[in-house]
Every structure is written in structure tokens, then in C-alpha cells.
Amino acid sequence: MATQHSRSAARLMMAPAVILLLGWMLVPLTMTLFFSFKKYLPLRGGDLGWVGFDNYIRFVTSSAFWPSVLATLIIVGGVLLITVCFGVLLAILLDQPMWGQGIVRILVIAPFFVMPTVTALVWKNMFMDPVNGLLAHLWKAFGLTPVEWLSQASLVSIVIIVSWQWLPFATLILLTAIQSLDSEQMEAAEMDGAPPLARFGFITLPHLSRAITIVVLIQTIFLLSIFAEIFVTTQGSFGTRTLTYLIYQRVLESQNVGLGSAGGIYAVILANIIALFLMRIVGKNLD
Fold it and tell me: Are residues 177 and 139 in contact, defined by beta-carbon separation less than 8 angstroms?
């Protein structure tokens, strides 16, 4: 049992890391909050003084604000749906004995280690190009007109690209969970004559609930700040401008640091609302 002295020593040893972590998070957040109340135009006069909540009002009343929030939620929801569903399927398949199982698992997980910009460039030029892309040649082989993915199905394209990158992560977590499943339960259910779908619905899926919760929580945190894939492919056009990309446009393209900082605070608020919602709805599986 830990004594008071050992607990004090543990706190003392952890203090530098905690202080560094808090500083790493709080300093940028404090600066963002500070600039959000100022009219700061670096190339057009610099610091023009305090404006109060004017930046917040301008940002939220902008015609681009709510479409960007909607685009963000659609992309996050679409990617979560694809990665969780296909992640469960792939995890079950990879858990089956097969020749070269280790190599197959490495190949399935490999896309997660590719940089987002490289992933977007590969999909943009090799797969979704309406002239020389692989999907264009596939469409032509069936006598169909190639789809201009990044303009005609822009949101779907972004969801596919991001899902391809995050699917290995979901598969890895879910595969680890499946491997911890008690094989005796499955054998007993099979001996009792339970069909495969019943075994999946009543044994496998409940066992995966914690892993699915972890996948949803972690992916949501990162997907809310998606930027590189959009910047490389559509640059926010055709309805793919997310909240993060809108903030980028306000700060760098419009050179309005104050307005962009207000958007950053809105992004933090949105992320916390979604995080609280997820923790209340799916986070109960972690208890």
C-alpha cells in the first residue's frame, strides 16, 4: 500500500511532465483566446486594438460557418461509419488462419503510416483523376462515363480518402480485441447449433463494444481537425470546406488573425461538445 511519502515523491517526479504538458496546451489556447478579442491584421496595419466579441459575431454569422460545420460532421460521421463497419469485417477475416497471415496483416495496416498529404496525392492522381485515374479506366471498361470525383462527388471523395487512411487503425484495435475473445464461448455456441450471424451478434459484437468505443473516441478527436487531405485535393471547394479549413482561410488567406482565432475557439467548443456527447453515449462501455 502506497504511503504518504511515496505518493508525494510520485507527484514530485510527475510535476515537470505535467507542467510541460499544461504549458504546451494552455499557452497556445490562451494566445488564441487573447487574439480573438483583437483586430489583428499582420499585413494590413497590425494590431488595431480590442474589438470585444465582434470577431465571434462575424465568424458565426458568416455564410460559410454553418456549411463548414455541417461538412465537418458529415466527414467525421462518414469516416467513422466506414472504418468501424469495415474494420470489424477485416479484423474477423485477419483473425482466420491463412497462408502468409503476418504479411497480409502488415499490408492491411501499412496505409496508416502514410502521410496524409501523400495519401491525398495518391488518391487524387492515381485513382480519382477523371482522365488517367484507375477508377476512370474501370468506368470506361464497363462503358460508363468517368466520374469527376473531386468536383461531382467531393464529400464522398474526401470520406473515401480519409477512411482508407484510418481503416488500418480501426482494424488493428478491433483485431486485438477479437484475439482476446474466449474461444470456448464460440465453440460452445457452435456446438449448440448457433448460426454464424447469431454468434457474431450475441458474442463477438458485444465483446468488441469497448474496442469500438475507443476507435470512435480517438478517431473523432483527430478527424475534427482534418485539413491536409482537403488542402491537397479540393482546397475547400465544392462543399468540402470544413471548420478547420475555414479557420485557415481566415488566418492565412484573409490575413485576419483575430477572426481566425475566434474560429479556433469555436472549433474547441465544438470538439468539447462532441467529446462530451460521445463520452455519455458510447463512453459507458468503458465502465
Answer: no
pLDDT tops 90 at residue 78: yes
Give the structural domain span for 249. Answer: 36-286
User: Span 171-176, mean pLDDT?
Assistant: 88
Output the nine-digit C-alpha cell for 104: 497480409
Average pLDDT value over all residues in the chain: 82
Prediction pTM value: 0.84
CATH number for the domain harbouring residue 189: 1.10.3720.10
Number of domains in the chain: 1
Cell readout for 187 is 465453440
Q: Per the domain annotation, does 21 fall within a domain?
A: no
Residue 7 covered by a domain: no
- Contact present, 165 and 108 (Cβ < 8 Å): no
Q: Determine the average pLDDT of the residues in 211-230.
A: 87
HSE-up (13 A, CA, CB side) for residue 215:
29
pLDDT at 60: 86
d(CA 16, CA 13) in angstroms, rounded, equals 7
Strands (DSSP E) contained in the chain are 38-41, 46-50
